[in-house]
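Much of what follows relies on a compact textual record of a protein's fold. Think of the row as the fold of the chain written in a discrete alphabet. An example makes this concrete, so a full record is given next.


***
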Amino acid sequence: MTATRNDDLGKLLLRITLGGLLLFHGLSKVLQGADGIHRMVGAAGLPDWLAYGVYLGEFVAPLLVLLGLFARPAALVIAFNMLVALLLVHTGQFFSLSKMGGWSLELQAFFLLNALTIAVIGAGALRVGKPDARWWA
């Protein structure tokens, strides 16, 4: 396998990890609703319609990342979604550890940093559609 092929395989694995794991969170909200998100958004004094962004950030964007379609902008949507989640829900956990000794926000940090990584490196050649060097790939 060439270095380029290895890079593309690594990008695919990263996309599967981020998109696949985050998609479960989005699917849960699609099936059960996002009432809790609506309450949090309202409690923060933000317009209620912003809560619908969770469907974009946790369902649509992960699907696009998995497929490698518009992977960079989709990854930026995920990163923004994670920043909003950190600010609305998790501010009290920034300096705390979980019961197992890890950082309380390691999952959120994992999603955020992996999304930023995909935004920087792109989807790679192993994706749906014609591989090219455009910024959104």
